[in-house]
Amino acid sequence: MNARADHTLEPTVLSNAHLDALEEEAIFILREVAASFERPTLLFSGGKD
Predict the structure, then answer these.
(1) Which end of the chain is more exposed for a tag (fewer CB within 10 A), N or C?
(2) Residues near 40 by Cβ (< 8 Å), separated by ≥ 6?
């Protein structure tokens, strides 16, 4: 069985523009919150939970 495909597959161009916008907004929010406190702290848990 020989099936011939006459169409070519072109690579899909992905855009991360929406992810960049979300990242920028998140950073902006964190900076605004940090600026509103005298001694801001960010808790981080990198261990096995």
Answers:
(1) N
(2) 33, 34
